Fold each of these.
Amino acid sequence: MFFRTSDFNDIGGFDTNIFLYYEETDLCKRLLKIGKHAYLFPQAKFIHYHGASTKKSIELKIKLKISLLYVIRKHYGLFQYWILLIFFQVRYFFSSLIKPKYFKLWLILIAQATLSSSLKSKQKIND
């Protein structure tokens, strides 16, 4: 993703509440609010090894949902946030019946997927 440093500064840089997922979505939405645009170049080709840099885990799936819900609430409002949250609560309730590893995710969603339940808040910084 490329954009001018001045535009990045104008939108306040990265939202530090977003950790690991949906940074690009947030940046693009904020750039659009100041009249800037993000463009898609359909001729560009790349290989994306999905999940190659992180191990698959329920913790990452939890973070993905927390970040998505945060961005939806931030940019689209409470109604859309609640619709998506309820959808996820129902979906992962039934998923957890089949795959018990999703039970932890469902509990996070029942607690409204707050930022305090994300990996960011659990990070330990070593001096």
Note: The radius of gyration is 17 Å.
Amino acid sequence: MSGVSTIDESATNALQDALAAEHAALWCYGLVVVYLDAAQAAQARADADAHRALRAKVETTLTQIGARPVSAQPAYAIPQPVVDAGSAAALALVAETDALAAWRSVVERTADRPLRQAALDALTEGTLRCSRWREATNTPPPIPPFPGR
């Protein structure tokens, strides 16, 4: 997201929401990884690393434009208890779906070219992560027709 010049309040708010979604995704991955088999746990760790890197970029961007980045919450509400690999994969899917919605909002709320490109990249990479969890949970189609909607 480097190269972001100036963005308006609407775009800043959308970027803060994306940061909040990244915080939540990381929290979710921290919870689910212990319930997954070795292959899925490795994927969850890789996905968490991607979210961690993206979160750092968003925090840097917000700081550069003079906005204080939102903080992570100590815990997040989840739609259902995580008790096994299936419910863990379902929560990973929720985390990715929520992050996609936040990044789509950034794309829709900025005209800043570098920020739009960064949000589009986040949306594209997130769609690939989401598709793996959709497949793991047998949620068709593997790639939703409008990611983030």
Note: Helices lie at 9-32, 38-64, 85-108, 113-136.
Amino acid sequence: MIAHVHVDAPVITIDRPFDYEVPEQFEALIEPGMRVSVPFGSRRLLGIVVGTSDGTREGLKPLEALLDEESSLTDELLALSIHVKETTLCFRSSALLAMLPAALKVSYDKEIKEGQVPDGVRLGTHLSEYPKEVQSVILGLAKKGELTLAPVLKEKKTVKTDVVVELLDATVVSKRAKKQLEAVRQLEETPRMYWSALRQIGLTRPQLQKLAELGAVRLTEVELNRDPYATIEQVEESVQLNDSQANAVRAIHEADAGETLLVHGVTGSGKTEVYLESIGQVIDEGKQAILLVPEISLTPMMVKRFKRRFGDRVAVLHSALSKGEKYDEWRKIKRNEVDVVVGARSAIFAPLDRLGLIILDEEHETTYKQEENPRYHARDVAIWRSRYHGCPVVLGSATPSLES
């Protein structure tokens, strides 16, 4: 099998897919949209698989590793990357990487493999672990051939985990083990606790492991979701729309496939109620929605309104979240655990596969235009996606842009 891969190297002469042989152990796993590690000249680079084909060819280098368990980019987003490349004149690799959260991008480093190393430097470590002056010495030795450096990819993604502790038998704990006894007493009150909570009483990890070896507790490692809005509860709200709002909601609901509509209303006229009601109708039909707002408008109050209406079926993406929080929100979207994505410009690339509505609030704002490569406009990407899914785009503004 052959994989067609776009590598993370924004150079015009190599802005095309390169062919790599797929090792037999990867053949049943590899899919278009996956991130892979590939050899490229003397380097090792991140690549995105854009297609595969049967057969083989002499002289092809093999893929080194699959970095994903399933595709990070859907078939739709792979097709969208071609559109972004052609309309913004960027490299396709730049378009592909712009669709991924920061946690799925990589940094490049060198591993110190073998040879005569300076004092304080150990084999098997990475070049970036040392101060700049030490790095210069290491690179000088490598240039002379006295030690060997190998290129490596360093992933940025992190998954937050904790250990669930369940009480099995309190009688097996020695009365002299005071911390273990205290932990058991806590577990007798709450038979299932997180290790992070038990650690507050001073119980160390070896002491916890000893409890497990004695059969006093069962330990289960679980993955945690970093959700900064987890405390906002869903509330049943009954909103009475006025005639203008009801007409707007009706027009959005009856819009043709791929149609673009403009909701023109002054500030405070109730456009958000129109968005909420329209999204609610889309969700009732089993579809999903994206609401884009300018970063400055993505206030806790705005997020709270959507969370109160749609509960934990809302994912939020904006720059105030940490890299880990964004990654967890993106994974919720990818797993189809949400119906609504609320976010700033880059949320237009959210990997939803049942899109029924896209809304750009304050569509005249200049922040919808990306100033770095790829220089896409979120409105243009929204219109392309709406035509792909056959759903309407709603542009809301008190002062619409000249184009709208």
Note: The two ends are 47 Å apart (CA to CA).
